[in-house]
Design brief:
The complex is a heterodimer of chains A (271) and B (305). With 271 residues, chain A is of the alpha/beta class. Chain A has five helices and 15 strands. In chain A, the strands form three sheets. Chain A has a seven-stranded mixed beta sheet with strand order 10-9-8-7-11-12-15, sandwiched between helices. Chain A has a six-stranded antiparallel β-barrel with strand order 1-2-5-4-3-6. Chain A has a two-stranded antiparallel sheet with strand order 13-14. The relative contact order of chain A is 0.15. The longest helix of chain B has 15 residues. Classes of the chains: A alpha/beta (271), B alpha/beta (305). Chains A and B meet through strand 13 of A and strand 5, strand 6, helix 1 and helix 7 of B.
Chain lengths: 271, 305
């Protein structure tokens, strides 16, 4: 058995006091809490599994949005019972958290590429802010070209834009054309790829968003073979720590657990 | 200083230091739970079911929360008995807790084959025979058929001296007949219940949530169904019962003891609280002290009196 123990010791069951919670867009909230442990151990792309209480039977996974000192931020949209409950939390309430969980993005590899693109579809922007922080910290000077492509339905859904470090150039796309180009985030990405394709680039794409976006990403990868791409997946989840085998997705290498083998996968292993 | 209480329980020749065990499939093979659960307070941990050949499991999505619990259709995904012995058992041996290995199979022969291979492996303290998975020959679960239940248990009994725990479904016309058959076959204990069949449909996509369509329903919603089946089983046989199904706290566990369980298994709750088994053990000790109960077996079946 390949032992995946590199971060197992770092998984902890912790109680954290909620520090801030604010509405940042329609049905979208950002909260923060203090955790030295997560601030020290968490890698971008990892997530926390939150017991939101209220008699719910399972925890809810949230990717780590950003970290500022010892303050950990989560970004979430209200989509079901768990998030409906979480938005009712107040400053000082206790959050019951398991984390950090999952594998995370291979952010150390960013500097090996001539261009880095972070591609966010909707709430997929959540983990990419933390990723951009880490990339900027680790490779700030050597990074030639760092870009963020953000896709939203409409202008008022655009969030977290100001959280990306200065090194990152931001391109937006909206379904209704109220901000950025009219079209999808993949259209925005492709536009940039066309601009650089003759410069002999080596491009790394880190993406998070809905599954159809990944299928489109896979199409681009075939068309622009100088790109590598890591994507963060979502799936209904049980335990979050790899025991229940509930959250698997189909890969070329068989079923893989999103919570333990992922949530970040090489796109080529899926499509 | 409060008086010590005796929470030890015997399952055949095996003595458990606590009457709380984790249900198969909710602790994996124990490795991922390290650091998140206090194994020293657990009576035993029961592995995820092992089959003869590796199983890839069911089409995702495999798990979904519903109002009163959880639906899952994992499909017994496991690496098969050979890989289990080679790669997992060495790690399991280091876990400070009795290990019970759950055995499953599509055919009667597969059960025999798995048990035969495990017999030479040290560190396994007992077997839980999972008779609540679909059987290819019967076209239903073995534990829905008293004759088949008897036949499998009898066959396996002849091949091992280790304690045999027989895990049965609650989805049967007469649970008394099934546990009776398990006892006649030579079971040391019966474990009940497994999940109940259930389904949830996404009204946006107008399709079932689970990839397979239906799945096993667990969690708080099944507790009254489970308590009732343990009650009936306790009236039918005098061998130890591992009762469970929907236990969410120590009070729920105590209901199962009162219904006739000697040991209580914790399942879905482990996903919410990885240390649930240890916490519930603490709650049971507190209850015993408050009610001046010295030995846990004084509690077993008390509601029948």
């Amino acid at each position: 058995m390949k032992k995946k123990t590199e971060n197992r010791d770092a998984i902890k069951h912790i109680q954290c006091s909620l520090r801030t919670i604010e509405k940042v867009a329609y049905q979208t909230y950002r909260l923060s809490f203090v955790s030295e442990h997560l601030a020290r151990c968490a890698r971008p792309g990892q997530f926390v599994h939150v017991n939101v209480g209220g008699g719910l039977s399972l925890r809810r996974p949230f990717s780590i949005h950003k970290i500022k000192g010892n303050e950990v931020f989560l970004l979430f949209r209200v989509v079901g019972r768990g998030t409906r409950r979480l938005k009712e939390y107040h400053r000082g309430d206790t959050l019951d958290i398991l984390g950090p969980l999952g594998n995370g993005f291979r952010f150390h590899e960013a500097h090996k590429y001539s261009h880095v693109f972070l591609v966010a579809g909707g709430m997929g922007v959540a983990p990419l802010v933390f990723l951009s922080q880490k990339i900027a910290q680790g490779t700030g000077r050597s990074l030639v070209d760092a870009h963020v492509c953000v896709g939203v339905k409409t202008k008022k859904d655009l969030i977290a834009k100001s959280d990306f470090p200065r090194q990152f150039k931001i391109y937006t796309a909206s379904d209704d054309g109220t901000i950025g180009i009219k079209g999808s985030v993949i259209d925005a990405l492709e536009k940039k790829l066309i601009q650089v394709k003759d410069k002999n680039p080596r491009i790394k794409i880190y993406a998070c968003g809905p599954k159809p976006m990944f299928a489109e990403c896979a199409r681009l990868l075939k068309q622009y073979p100088f790109c590598d791409c890591e994507v963060s997946f979502e799936q209904f989840m049980g335990c979050g720590i790899g025991v229940c085998l509930g959250c698997v997705i189909d890969t070329h290498d068989g079923y893989k657990r999103v919570c333990k083998d992922g949530p970040v996968f090489d796109l080529k292993s899926i499509f | 200083m409060s008086k010590p209480v005796d929470i030890k329980v015997k399952l055949g020749t095996l003595t458990l230091k606590s009457p709380i065990v984790c249900a198969s499939g909710t602790f994996g093979y124990g490795l991922e739970m390290k650091g998140l659960t206090d194994f020293s307070r657990l009576g035993a941990f029961i592995t995820k079911t092992i089959t003869g050949e590796p199983r890839v499991g069911n089409l995702p999505p495999r798990i979904i929360e519903v109002e009163t619990g959880v639906l899952n259709s994992i499909g017994l995904e496991n690496p098969g008995v050979d890989i289990f012995i080679q790669d997992y058992v060495p790690h399991i041996k280091k876990i400070p807790c009795e290990c019970i290995v759950s055995i499953g199979g599509h055919t009667f022969e597969e059960y025999k084959e798995v048990l035969k291979k495990l017999e030479s492996v040290k560190g396994i303290r007992a077997y839980e025979i999972n008779l609540s998975c679909p059987n290819l020959q019967l076209k239903r679960m073995i534990s829905q058929d008293p004759h088949a239940t008897y036949k499998v248990v009898k066959t396996l009994r002849a091949k091992t001296a280790r304690p045999l725990i027989v895990k049965v479904t609650g989805e049967t016309e007469d649970i008394a007949k099934i546990v009776g058959a398990a006892k006649s076959g030579g079971a040391d204990a019966v474990s009940l219940v497994n999940t109940f069949f259930g389904m949830a449909i996404d009204i946006v996509r107008q399709k079932p949530y689970l990839g397979k369509g239906y799945g096993g329903y667990s969690g708080k919603g099944i507790k009254p169904l489970s308590v009732y089946r343990v009650w009936n089983a306790a009236q039918a046989v005098d061998i130890p019962l591992i009762g469970g199904g929907g236990v969410m706290n120590a009070a729920d566990a105590i209901e199962f003891f009162l219904a006739g369980a000697h040991v209580v298994s914790i399942g879905t709750l482990n996903f919410l609280y990885p240390n649930a088994c240890a916490d519930i053990t603490g709650g049971i000790i507190a209850y015993m002290r408050a009610h001046k109960i010295k030995k846990i077996n004084e509690l077993t079946g008390r509601a029948h009196e």
